[in-house]
Amino acid sequence: MKIAVIGTGYVGLVTGTCFAETGNEVTCVDVDQSKVAKLSSGVITIYEPGLEKLFLRNQKEGRLNFTTSLEDGIAGAQIIFLALPTPPGEDGSADLKYILGVADDLGKLLKPTDYTVIIDKSTVPVGTADKVRNAILKSSSKVSPTGGDLEGAFDVVSNPEFLREGVAVDDFMKPDRVVIGTSSERAKKLVNDLYVPFVRQGNPILFMDEKSAELTKYAANAFLATKITFMNEIAQLCERLGADVDMVRKGIGSDERIGKRFLFPGIGYGGSCFPKDVQALARSAEEAGYDFSILRSVMDVNEKQKLHLIPKIKAYFNNDLQGRKIALWGLSFKPNTDDIREAPALSIIDSLLAAGASVSAYDPEAMANVKAILGDNIRFTERQYEALDGADALVIATEWSEFRTPDFGKMSTLLKNKVIFDGRNLFDLLKMEELGFHYVSVGRRPINP
Fold first, then answer.
1. What angle do CA 328, 278, 105 make, to 5 degrees?
2. In angstroms, what CA-CA distances link 199 with 177, 191, 344, 373?
3. Strand order of the sheet with strand 419-422?
4. Beta 419-422 vs 438-440: how paired, if at all?
5. Active-site residue (options: 18, 28, 238, 273)
6. Cα(93)–Cα(385) distance, integer angstroms
7. At what angle do helices 274-287 and 293-305 cross, to 10 degrees?
8. Which of 117, 155, 166, 383 is the one with CA 20 to 30 A from 322?
9. Cα separation of 134 and 140, whole Å?
């Protein structure tokens, strides 16, 4: 099948590459000339485990191509995916200007003689499929002497992505479910054929109306964000009552109605999806005349949770961080990605700098992205232990695997004080006590040697 993917960001690049892997001919389109040049020359522009191997293989086989020309990119395509940004506007609602802008362009390019399925892959508010369809028809009527020639020549489908950064290739190639929103039997058959190779193990392709599909993505992310935030609230309560959040987590996670996943407390969620989607769903509810109060609480608690360690750090240093050097492990919002959007580490850095401290940071993948924002305001190190040299304390903000079993002996010699503030609960309390560290985590008793 011939496919076009509009947008080569995280979703677009993973989508295009994975569809090429199953034998489809894929052309990815982007207006960023430098990005397209890099991709065309075999340079991948995001970090995602397992993606580069598929990318290079399919590019070599000629199944994955890139262009800045929308007209060339969609030529002959049976299916066109819209994988474009939907950033939050000032009021929190998703900004559809990129999607509707491309829809306007498609109306001028689509041919009435060729049936095409337009798929919203981006996370979009309820009703977007209708808006895209209307934008295409409106644009078409401006260039066609008869007007409305595209009526019946295309369908707009909602097909939300459920990709987790760090395991996106696995999520795409072996999805838990595929959600397809369409009222068109013709589109249903075409899209079903496209996805059949990905669900050979029996996971479902769920067909529903467009609006239900659009809401499903928001509902899923909002629920997971709520689950994380609830556990962070429990962690706050554990600290005040002397309970251990790890024990509580195991106790409730064994209940099959609740499940074990997304119950790990920490310093809040970040990334490109949860913050934006929770905000957008709350705004959509407001526009519909409903006060989605639980989502407002989730957003409020999460912003506070990002700075959960700051009062504890200040208290250890008698509320005086002036001149203190703080080492920071982890900058990305989660491990196995270079994505720093809404990363708790950024809030921590801002707070430490405002208090007069200096920061020496290490992250396996995200340092270049942070440096593009902060410049020389903090120091970046090439190795994780280099960040500790002469530091007064260590803060852990991302649970990269290489941080889980460090050389504590080396850490003891490099740090001025054997002090760790762990925002991801990586280490065992008894072990830290035996090693003689002052160790503060989230929702567990502090270790004070």
1. 105
2. 8, 13, 35, 41
3. 379-380, 358-362, 325-329, 393-396, 419-422, 438-440
4. parallel
5. 273
6. 42
7. 150
8. 383
9. 10
Q: Which range is least confidently modeled, 32-36, 75-79, 86-90, 215-219?
A: 86-90
The DSSP secondary-structure symbol of 427 reads S
Active site residue 238: no
Q: What is the pLDDT, as a whole number, of residue 143?
A: 63
User: What is the sign of the dihedral through the CA atoms of 330, 335, 336 and 342?
Assistant: negative
Q: What confidence tens digit (pLDDT) does each residue in 235-256 have?
A: 999 999 999 999 999 999 999 9
The span from the CA of 120 to the CA of 142, in Å, is 23
The predicted pLDDT at position 272 comes to: 84
For residues 51 and 18, the answer to whether their CB atoms sit within 8 Å is: no
CA dihedral of residues 10, 16, 18, 20 (deg, nearest 10): -160
Structure-token pair, residue 34: 């430098």
160 residue type, one letter: P
CB proximity list for 294: less than 8 A, separation 6 or greater? 226
Q: What is the pLDDT of residues 312-346, one digit of tens each?
A: 999 999 999 999 999 999 999 999 999 999 999 99
Instruction: Report the chain's mean pLDDT, rounded to a whole number.
Output: 95
pLDDT band per the 50, 70, 90 thresholds, residue 148: low
Helix or strand holding residue 80 (H, E)? strand 79-82
The separation between the first and the last C-alpha atoms of the chain, rounded to the nearest angstrom, is: 64
Q: Is the pLDDT of residue 141 over 90?
A: no
Strand, helix or coil at 179? Answer: strand
What pTM was estimated for this model as a whole? 0.91
- Sheet containing strand 116-120, edge to edge, reads 64-67, 25-29, 2-6, 79-82, 116-120, 154-158, 178-181, 205-208
CB 157 within 8 A of CB 124: no
**Token pair in block for residue 123:** 């996370």
Residues of the chain above pLDDT 90, percent: 94
Q: What is the Cα–Cα distance from 154 to 252, expressed in whole angstroms?
A: 48
Q: What is the pLDDT of residue 119?
A: 98
Task: Return the structure tokens found at 226.
Answer: 């709520």
What DSSP string runs through 248-311? HHHHHHTSTTT-STT----S---SSSHHHHHHHHHHHHHHTT---HHHHHHHHHHHHHTTTTHH
Domains and CATH numbers, the chain: 2-207 (3.40.50.720), 218-304 (1.10.1040.10), 306-440 (3.40.50.720)
Residue 86 · residue 45 · CB < 8 Å: no
